[in-house]
Design brief:
The complex is a heterodimer of chains A (246) and B (204). Chain A is α/β, with parallel strands linked by helices. Chain A has helices spanning 13-20, 28-59, 61-76, 88-101, 130-139, 147-153, 170-181, 195-202, 217-244; strands at residues 81-85, 123-125, 159-163, 185-191, 208-212. The termini of chain B are far apart. Classes of the chains: A alpha/beta (246), B alpha/beta (204).
Chain lengths: 246, 204
């Protein structure tokens, strides 16, 4: 049996061939062989993603520390964090905002928490308001859904976090550009080689950019999740230090 | 401040190695779950996903993963999350209590071949457990992504497949859940590409 190909089209396969020859394909040995293939593939992907996550934390160590320190300064000024992205990245934007607004319960020093525990911080997800997103899409266009919200609510002490896997989502780019114009701290997440978000970082529009060097959207998102969780944690730690030293 | 943050980053990195490595040991459980899920999709079933807080965003992520595949050529498969409809969530929570928000929706929205997938970082979310138990009563395939010791959800006889992130840290658990459901999505498709391994639909 040929090994499963991750990019072959599955479209007309499952139903039609089996529909024609339903009894040719029922064999326990086939099931066991594919299960074995799937098991090996699971191990391979789990190992790849762990390696990529740890590499991101190593290679971007200084950038993560610098970005967290900058976010601490914004929150200390009363700033709020806005996050945005499309599709899976929209759920990451929500997840990031949720961590800021409602941190995990408890928070022990073993989990990296400062002495006073995790603290809630103001944050908002620009994909959550369906009325706003559909109104802007319908009346103006999908590329402005984040930029217009930043223009309405953003203040110079705030933080804008744009998440993309390709680095090329028009509405994320527009949101970052609008945020920079208004003096917000701008943070971006991308994959591949950074795409157009990479260009924004090179021209100074993006203050901090984290590029996961992979061409798998899944592995990119998985490493992005780790990086923004660590950014969240370091921001918490930094704010505790900031308060302890007048 | 930078020195302390650098130290915190090193500690955060260290907390991710063990649980990330432990995931490799669960490959067999992942493979079995993929196979059963592929069978259900093959029978025309849909995937119904739910969770609280951070995991509620994962529920939506799982749903979009199946409905709109990122890999060109993969078929769209039916999935829905029970967390995106604030009107229903708050309506049920207000009238029946928060523990019922998912269990209430399932009998109305689920059909026979469907699957219920619940996410809970500590395995103790009452509404996720209630959702999975209701799924079992409806003969759905029940799958749970949990963390820590798995809590009451992992211990429940109502759950067919328990996949565990071996960490008590809810954020690290979430990171591993993202990997787990990406793998579930991708490898469910492997069974579709090998048509012999899915049972022909039963003729009654």
């Amino acid at each position: 049996m040929p090994p499963p190909s991750s990019d072959s089209g599955a479209g007309g396969f499952g139903g039609s061939i089996e529909g024609l020859y339903p009894f040719l394909y029922a064999g326990d040995s086939d099931v066991e062989s594919v299960l074995g293939e799937v098991r090996r593939s699971t191990e391979e992907k789990a190992a790849q993603t762990l390696d990529l996550r740890l590499r991101m934390l190593d290679e971007y160590a200084e950038e993560i520390v610098a970005c967290a320190a900058a976010m601490v300064r914004r929150f200390a000024r009363g700033g709020k964090l806005y996050a945005f992205g499309n599709g899976g990245s929209s759920t990451d934007a929500e997840g990031l905002v949720q961590a800021f607004l409602q941190p995990p319960a408890g928070g022990s020093p073993e989990e990296g928490a400062p002495a006073g525990g995790w603290r809630p911080l103001p944050a908002g997800c620009l994909t959550a308001d369906v009325a706003c997103v559909t109104a802007l899409s319908n009346d103006v266009g999908f590329e402005v859904i984040f930029a217009r919200q930043i223009a309405a609510a953003g203040r110079p002490e705030d933080v804008a976090v744009g998440l993309s896997t390709s680095g090329g989502s028009d509405n994320v780019l527009a949101g970052i550009q609008e945020a920079k114009q208004r003096g917000l701290l701008t943070v971006g997440f991308a994959g591949y080689e950074g795409g157009r978000l990479g260009e924004l970082a090179a021209s100074g529009v993006l203050d901090h950019l984290f590029v996961v060097p992979s061409s798998s959207i899944h592995r990119i998102q998985e490493s992005q999740t780790t990086v923004y969780h660590v950014l969240w944690e370091l921001t918490q730690r930094g704010l505790a230090i900031q308060e302890a030293t007048p | 401040m930078e020195a302390v943050l650098k130290e915190a980053l090193t500690a955060a990195r260290a907390r991710r190695g063990g649980p990330g490595q432990a995931l490799l040991g669960d490959a067999e459980a992942v493979a079995r779950a993929c196979h059963d899920m592929a069978q259900r999709f093959h029978q025309g079933g849909k995937l119904i996903v739910f969770g609280n807080g951070g995991p509620s965003t994962d529920a939506q992520h799982v749903s979009v993963e199946f409905v709109h595949p990122v890999v060109v050529g993969k078929r769209a498969l039916p999935a829905t999350s029970l967390t995106s409809d604030a009107a229903t969530l708050t309506g049920v929570a207000n009238r029946d209590g928060f523990a019922e928000v998912f269990a209430y929706q399932l009998p109305i929205l689920a059909a026979e071949a469907d699957m219920a997938l619940g996410l809970s970082s500590d395995g103790d979310c009452a509404n996720v457990r209630r959702g999975l138990e209701t799924g079992r009563e409806l003969d759905l395939l029940t799958v749970a992504l949990v963390g820590g010791d798995g809590g009451a959800i992992a211990a429940s006889p109502a759950v067919d497949h328990v996949l565990t992130a071996h960490t008590a840290d809810p954020l690290v658990a979430k990171e591993l859940h993202v990997t787990l459901y990406h793998i579930l999505w991708e490898l469910v498709h492997v069974f579709f590409e090998q048509p012999g391994v899915l049972e022909p639909e039963e003729v009654s």
